[in-house]
Structures are given as C-alpha cells and as structure tokens.
Design a protein that fits this description.
Layout lengths: L2 H13 L6 H14 L3 H17 L3 H17 L6 H17 L2 H18 L5 H16 L3 H15 L6 H17 L3 H18 L10 H17 L3 H19 L3 H17 L2 H18 L1
Helix pairs in contact: 1-2, 2-3, 3-4, 3-5, 4-5, 5-6, 5-7, 6-7, 7-8, 7-9, 8-9, 9-10, 9-11, 10-11, 11-12, 11-13, 12-13, 13-14
Length: about 290
C-alpha cells in the first residue's frame, strides 16, 4: 500500500471538513492493507483509527483498534521499538478518555520508559506524552504531578515553531489545571497566551478544520473563566461559539455534551432556565450514547 497516499487523502478529508467520511475511509484502507498483508500499513492505519475514534467518543472502536495494533506488534516482536511506544501512547489516551484510568496509567508509564530510551529528551513526542499524562493525573486529583508534566511539555515545545498549535493547546490545558488549583490569575494568563498563539496561527478560522477543535477548547476555557468571574452573558456568548466549532469538527461527541452542560450553568446563572434545561437535556441524550 502507498501509505503516503493514504495520509494525503486523510488530510484532504480533514482539511475540507468532510468529517463524516473519515470512518469509512479508514476502514476501507485498513481492509486493503490487510488484503495486501502489509503489516506496517495496518499498524499505522490502526493508530489513526485509535486517534480518530477517540476524538469522536467512539471508545469501543478506539480500544478495539488499540488492542489489534498492540497485539500485532507483539507478534512481530516489536515491543521495544519506538513505534510500539507511540502505539502505547495512543492506546493510553483512548483508555483515559473511556474512563479507565488504571489501564491508561499503566500504558503511559510503559510508553514513557520506551520513548525516553529511544528519543532525545527534547523530542516533541515526549511533549505529547507529558501533555496526555498530565490530563490523567488531573483526572485522578494528582494536581502537582499534572502540573509537573505540563511544565515538561511546555519546556520541550516552546522553542519549536512548528509545534505552535500544540503549544497553545498545552497552555489551554495548563489554564484548566491552574483554575482547578484555584490559581485563577495564572490560569487567565495561560489562556491569553494560548489565544495569542491560536490567532497568530489562523486557528480562529472555522475553515481550518484540523485546528478548530483546539481553538474551541480554548474558547471553552475562556467561557469558564468568564463564568467564574460572574460575567455570565459573556460566558454564554463564548460557549456558543465553542459549541458550533466542536460540532463542525467532530459532531455531537462527548466534549460537545460536556460543553453543553457548562453552557447550561451559564444560562441558569442568567435566569434563563428554559435554555439551561434544553441544553442539559441535549447533553444527557448525547452522553447516553457513550455510556
């Protein structure tokens, strides 16, 4: 299989916003790679499936792709390779998103051992691991560990201009963590840093389908900050923009539902109980699909 042509086609689908075509595209090319007995292509496509299905909250499909990829790599004796470590990282993010923190932590720790052995200490892939590991630590309330991991990610990414969007995303995550730690002034500074990077890189453009989800996350963070400071009308306005961008990128997934719930709280604070209830009901309907 021409794997470069596969990735080019996948990028074209994302860049044109035809998200509804991604699933079939991935499945069709996986079948072709399997028929050609191209194990390398199969593993790379399965990794793309892990990432995509996780992003649209189809966790069972993401985890199935993860186990298939890891199982194939073990059979091929690739456990100590960089490729295996990267696949472990992808699998860990899927398990974390599905709510299985214990399995995710085990995978993250194994991936970290391999990646630190195979990569220089300033490699961007390590930054990605630290970013995702931080989210897991935050999920479990280990805020100090989460902060340390994010600081590692920022240290690696800051000198690399090609990672600007990823760095902005890390700053959004840093802001959310600092807010949870009641360090609100620092959280707002991190959000402003993220927004400056996003706007400089053109991520605010809704046509930038691959960048828009990260920008939407930054918007949601700003909305939460405005809500926390009592600016409920501004929070509702920004949440609305974030919801539109999330839906355009990945449909009504789990993140969209969670943002609906947060927006409902802002409407409630404004006294618009009807809109608040409608958003909560919508969020419940969406979340029921992923339970």
């Amino acid at each position: 299989m021409d794997i470069n042509a596969f990735f080019k086609g996948l990028s074209e689908i994302f860049d044109s916003g035809r998200i509804d075509q991604v699933s079939e595209y991935l499945r069709r090319h996986l079948r072709e790679a399997e028929q050609e007995q191209d194990s390398g292509a199969v593993i790379r496509i399965l990794n793309e499936m892990i990432r995509y299905f996780r992003s649209v909250s189809s966790y069972s499909e993401a985890l199935d792709a993860a186990e298939r990829a890891l199982g194939m790599m073990r059979k091929l004796g690739l456990e100590q390779t960089l490729s295996y470590g990267t696949t472990l990282l992808n699998a860990a993010t899927a398990y974390r998103a599905s709510g299985d923190s214990a399995a995710a932590l085990d995978l993250f720790e194994t991936a970290l051992v391999i990646l630190k052995k195979e990569l220089p200490e300033d490699d961007p892939r390590l930054a990605g691991l630290y970013n995702n590991l931080s989210a897991l630590h935050q999920d479990t309330g280990a805020y100090d560990k989460a902060l340390g991991a994010l600081e590692q990610a920022v240290k690696i990414m800051t000198p690399l201009p090609e990672l600007a969007i990823d760095l902005a995303t890390v700053h959004v995550n840093l802001a959310l963590l600092l807010s949870a730690m009641q360090r609100d002034d620092e959280a707002m500074q991190a959000l402003h840093t993220a927004m400056r990077i996003f706007e400089r890189e053109g991520a605010a453009n809704p046509d930038k389908a691959r960048k828009a989800p990260y920008y939407a996350a930054a918007l949601a963070g700003f909305a939460a900050a405005h809500y926390k400071s009592g600016e409920f009308a501004k929070a509702v306005e920004i949440y609305g923009d974030a919801l539109k961008r999330l839906k355009d990128c990945f449909g009504e997934n789990r993140d969209y539902a969670l943002t609906c719930r947060n927006c409902a709280e802002a409407y409630e604070a404004l006294g618009d109980t009807k809109m608040a209830e409608a958003l909560r009901e919508k969020a419940d309907r969406i979340m029921a699909v992923f339970c």
